[in-house]
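Hi everyone,

Forwarding the result from last night's run.
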Amino acid sequence: MKRHIIILVAGMLYLTATPEAKAQVPAASAFTGLIKKVIVAIDIKVQRLQNQTIALQNAEQQVENTLHLNSLNGIADWLTKEKDLYAGYYRELSKVRRLIVDYDAVKRIISQQSQVLSEYRNANALFRRDPHFSPTELKYMGNIYSGILQESLRNLDETITVISDLAAQMDDAERLERISLAAKAMQTNLDHLRQFNRQNAALSFQRAKDGRDRAAVKQFYGIQ
């Protein structure tokens, strides 16, 4: 969280800096290319999480179907081996269902990530059309956005690690706790993105030249 706050403060200090200070910013294409790569990576991670969710749901259905099929073969005539088989099925079903509970939390993370990307794209498109920001300032905004998006990518990576086969040795409490932390971090990304967007819209309003210009800015950003 401290890292995000530092980035946001640095961003606002930059937007009010002198032209001489702004001259130190790298080319816009570098930030644009980096952001595109991060977004592609995010899309891949989200697709992987969605595929794993579907796989778990299919596994649950398969175990349930097997249990139902075996019950039709005469539960009253169970032998010890058959009882052990059923016990194994139930253990597997219980494990899958516990993981699916985890995936409900993962779905929330995916939804939050979707909001981050959507609100970034909308805000970025508006700022690039706003005459109150210079090209150099837009480059720096890209740097701030890149930092937030890369942090959200790191949160997705953490989520994938927690729910992967490699993390199967975790107990339920630890897995849920780590997923919960990833969800909170993702919400922090969204909150900071919104804060940065509001600050930039407010700055544009401050730079408006007259009443007509201020009215146009308010309508452009939906400022109440």
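The CA atoms of residues 115 and 121 lie 10 Å apart.

Cheers,
N.
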